[in-house]
């Protein structure tokens, strides 16, 4: 008798597990052209040579051009979740969707020293 009551619960758990795997398989693909129109959020700090942010601590702001697309998207996601701590970056990342993050990652990954779209990167 007990086996009959457990079986529906196991089937339900299995269904939820499969649904979770399917959701993970639908990874967002970035688009560099779409990222170009969203990069205005970044250029104010990240494209100024030798720029140093002074809040909360003074540190050099990294250039984004040529960085790995997945690294940029995962960094933005970490700021959005609060895993990385910088108030300005957290606010900006909080306004971005997963698609926006992937697009920005692809845009900056495509930048080279000779890229005409954003020569300062």
UniProtKB/TrEMBL annotation:
Keywords: Electron transport, Heme, Iron, Metal-binding, Signal, Transport. This is Cytochrome C. PANTHER family: CBB3-TYPE CYTOCHROME C OXIDASE SUBUNIT FIXP, CYTOCHROME C4. It comes from the Bacteria. Residues 1-25 form the signal peptide. Residues 30-112 form the Cytochrome c domain. GO terms for molecular function: electron transfer activity; heme binding; metal ion binding. The keyword Transport applies. The keyword Electron transport applies.
